[in-house]
Design brief:
Blueprint lengths: L1 H40 L17 E2 L7 E5 L2 E6 L2 E8 L2 E7 L3
Antiparallel strand pairs: 1-5, 2-3, 3-4, 4-5
């Protein structure tokens, strides 16, 4: 009887493990698919900035429309008109700080 109980216990453990793995894989696939759909659709976490006046040292969640990318001194800057932005990375993702011209 003990051998039969051990086999039944092993079968239950294997079934539980497989069910968990299948659920975890499905959740991961759904999360990845939702993320990829957002990226493909061009979704961003922040709306574009429409202001034309930016305070020196100000921090913005998104760049204004029309910024150009300029690599300078080993860093990537963004230029909009006469305003320079430098990306930084924080706990909530990327943000852009207004900095003096490099």
């Amino acid at each position: 009887m003990a051998a039969g109980a051990a086999v039944a216990s092993a079968n239950t453990a294997a079934a539980t493990s497989n069910a968990y793995a299948a659920g975890a894989a499905a959740a991961s696939a759904n999360t990845a698919n939702a993320y990829n759909a957002g990226v493909v659709a061009g979704a961003t976490g922040a709306a574009p900035v429409v202001s034309t006046t930016f305070a020196m040292g100000g921090v913005y969640a998104a760049l204004p429309q029309g910024c150009i990318t300029i690599p300078k001194n080993g860093a990537t800057y963004y230029l909009n008109g006469n305003t320079w932005f430098l990306p930084s990375y924080g706990a909530n993702g990327v943000y852009y700080r207004v900095v003096p011209a490099p």
